[in-house]
Amino acid sequence: MPGPSAPAGGRPTGPPPATGAWQEGDPPGNRRWADLPHALPLESGELLPGVRVAYETWGRLAPGGDNAVLVLHALTGDSHAAGPAGPGHPTPGWWDALIGPGRPLDTDRFFVVAPNVLGGCQGTTGPASRRPDGRRWASRFPRLTVRDQVAAEVALAESLGIDRWALVVGGSMGGMRALEWAASHPDRVSRLLLLASPAASSAEQIAWASVQLHAIRSDPAWRGGEYHDAGPGGGPHRGLGVARRIAQVTYRSEAEFQERFGRRPQPGEDPRSGGRYGVESYLDHHADKLVRRFDAGSYVVLTEAMNGHDVGRGRGGTASALRRVTMPTLVAGVDTDRLYPLWQQEELAAGIPGADAVRIVESPCGHDAFLVETGQVGALVGELLGEPAGARRRPG
To answer: What does 332-389 look like in DSSP terms, one character per residue?
Structure first.
């Protein structure tokens, strides 16, 4: 997941683990788990057995079950959308400013649910998980689609007794899943908020992702995906780190990089003598953090699912698919987003009957603004939740 920026600075010491995935026996933190009662049918025709979905909740489910909100994370995110870092949670909640009493997703009013995506690595079944026979899934983990991931989330909703979400919200990869929820299960979504995401992944987005996948698979420690039980430093952390550096450039804006770093060297280092520029240190910092909390196999599986995202596939094209999305909807994009540019959100807003004009988040932070600009995003949540369900209709 593109995450909020952190200041460049000291780098972690010691070799990273072979995988940064949450493992059985690690502190559970605030996670809960839902074990699917049956193997999950995938679009490929395969059955995925033994699926567990990790999730976190805030607030209480109303007796009628009508106050549930589904929050869907982006690529390297997880279920820890709110709360401090601590045992089981290496980073603070990625949307902490939005979830809690008196916040836009007011937990005195709403029951907020954030699952870890199918194929992820923070408690939900993914490549680092063990199969029913006790062996790692690793390279044998099946290829997934966004619709497969939503199918696992539907099963989670059923296990929680939630027939219809008061709101489904997601940004980036989470927005892809939110859109699929609305197109596949419109009767189960009362309101929809799509942030910095497209109707279908574009050629350029697939190209950026392809370079990242090549970086991981070119690491000799990738071993075809069979690396999870290697010792510290024995996993494909170099390839995953390069992938993260590439991704981080696309998550921010050129103007921010120029203003924040320019050509300045990292303090105490001289690029003419083997030292780093400040922007290089920033990218190193994000790479070092990710390889200690994420799994390379999950990065590959989730990135391939994003590449395959196309809400119009098998539905007569994008326009036909978007006409299914009739619930009150807000679509928002970021004015400086070079990864998921505004024309993609304009396409969504124009094609969704339950939406009106696209909302624009103004920020120098590029794509990451849907995580950083919590004040603007919170206002969008408030606008949508302040309306009675069914109230938003396109004029004319």
So the answer is: EEETT-SSS-HHHHHHHHHH-TT--SPEEE--TTGGGHHHH-HHHHHHHHHHHHTSPT
